Input
Amino acid sequence: MNSSPIVAVRGLTRDYAQGAVIVPALRGVDLDVGAGEFTAIMGPSGSGKTTLLNLIGGLDEPTSGRVVVDGQDLGRLDRGGRSDLRLHRIGFVFQSYNLIPVLTALENTEFVLMLQGVPKAERRARARETLAAVGLAGMEDRRPSEMSGGQQQRVAVARAIASQPALVLADEPTANLDSRMGTELIELMLHLNEDRGLTFIFSTHDPKVMQAARRVVWMEDGRIQRDDWK
Output
């Protein structure tokens, strides 16, 4: 593994309050992920995999422990600092696509670049190039409602990678896709990993993701039970 991992997690815990009851979602997780990995975090519902992904992405704060992403300790960043890290260094792919309905595929893809302040001509060119890379050339002007689920998820992937992030976090990206579309999406992301060296971390139930991953981290009851390399 790379001696300077792109993600380093130490002693991570996350508790949630359900009324008067405290429910632990993570119980002391340690994990390193090197640059260029294609890693799946697997486990049953409630195992803590999505919570772990959210903490790595700075979308939530741990109860205790440490998360370092791309050399930055999230615990030492304020809310604005974590937002800036997400904007510039982390791409997200969500189960529900999270596209903006009134925007076209091209506008959704360039949205993060717009937030980064990339000039219009440059961001438009990069968005077109990225859509072509995910197999959506010619669909730039379609809105989400005019696209299939698989096509929408490809737009979500394009949006995630257009800004050339250090890390892509994908939370159950194939859950709303049929088997064929799910397989195509996995093959697309595997190609991006191999061709561009993008680091992917998935949380997933999908056996197809597990088969494609080079590393599978198994979680149960908020703990890592196994860490399998292929």
The mean pLDDT is 94. The first strand starts at residue 7 and ends at 18. DSSP finds eight helices and ten strands in the chain. The domain at 35-64+77-229 is CATH 3.40.50.300 (Rossmann fold).
